[in-house]
Amino acid sequence: MLASLRHRFSTYFSVFNHFTHQIPMMRALYILSIPLMHLLMRLKITPNQATTLSNFLALVGLFFLLLPVSPWIFAVFWSLALSCDMCDGMIARLTHQSTPNGAFYDHMTDHIKLLLFFLAISIKYPSIDIQILAFLSSTFFLFYAVLSEKSTTLELQLFSKFPELDTPTPSAAPTAPLSPLKKFKQWIMPCIFLIHGHTVFLLIPAAFGSYSTRITLLIFLVSVFVNSRYVLEKCIKLNRQLFSLPGTPSIL
Questions:
Q1: Where are the domains of the chain?
Q2: In whole angstroms, how large is the CA radius of gyration of the chain?
Q3: Tens place of pLDDT per residue across the chain (252 aa)
Q4: Nearest to 221 by CA among 243, 238, 199
Q5: Distance between CA atoms of 120 and 220, rounded to whole angstroms?
Q6: How far is residue 121's CA from residue 212's CA, in Å, rounded to a whole number?
Q7: Which residues contact 142 (CB under 8 A, 6 or more apart)?
Q8: Can you give the pTM of this predicted structure?
Q9: Of 15, 18, 43, 77, which has the maximum CB count within 10 A?
């Protein structure tokens, strides 16, 4: 029985998003989404249908966010939408139904959900500072999304022309064990400041009052700025590397 459970969980971990190794919170959210993934697979829900279900639940949650009802209703629907959004990728990888069109549909609707969230927050709290924070958050997020796509494109171009660059480098010499404080910092920093699927979950506190909205939007804005700077530097480095290698035409 233990061997069966170990094999099953190793199968699940193999289809988790690769960011789960960087973000412990993502790993926890993926594990919590496993029962829902089983239910969707038993109902023969395809990955694209799971994405559509996630979009529908998110729209229902945003509808309740605008109504004078308990914010927990929004939190429930928004959390279910996030779980379905995680399940679509796992289902696609488990059933070998991953397609570029499906990935594009998933990522594009994720961006739309975030933009609609910022719009709903601006309507719910008609305060000029909250509206400015929501506008800046949505604008910088779109900038970050464009940079991320450009970074992915440059990586694909680089590795397609020079496959040897995609080979893993030898591991470095073992380092000294980290202190508990540094371990906690390595755990908490990506959870807060690395933009990915769990970021949608971290927006839930914005529904619980104007003060929590300001704090949530400020944290999101800082994290988007930090990630945008990192991806921009990565794009510049990849671009220089791509056009400085032999056999690559000059950008000039």
A1: 22-163+178-244
A2: 20
A3: 445 545 454 555 555 555 555 566 677 777 778 888 888 888 888 989 999 999 999 999 999 999 999 999 999 999 999 888 888 888 888 888 888 888 888 888 888 898 999 999 999 998 999 999 999 989 988 888 888 888 888 888 777 776 655 554 444 444 556 566 555 555 455 555 556 656 777 788 888 989 999 999 998 888 888 888 888 888 888 888 777 755 544 443
A4: 199
A5: 16
A6: 12
A7: 111, 115
A8: 0.78
A9: 77
| Lookup result for tokens 């601006």 | 122
Look at the block and give the residue holding tokens 């530097």: 233
- How far is residue 148 from each of residues 91, 141, 142, 173, measured CA to CA in Å? 24, 10, 10, 31
Which residue type sits at 245? L
The CATH fold assigned to 22-163+178-244 is Four Helix Bundle (Hemerythrin (Met), subunit A) (1.20.120)
**Quick check: 33 and 90 in contact, CB under 8 A?**
yes
Beta-strand runs (E) in the chain: none
Phi, psi (degrees; rounded to nearest 5) at 95:
-100, 5
Positive or negative torsion for Cα 17, 29, 75, 134: negative
Amino acid at residue number 181: L
User: Residues 92, 98: contact at Cβ < 8 Å?
Assistant: yes
Phi, psi of 203 (to 5 degrees): -85, -10
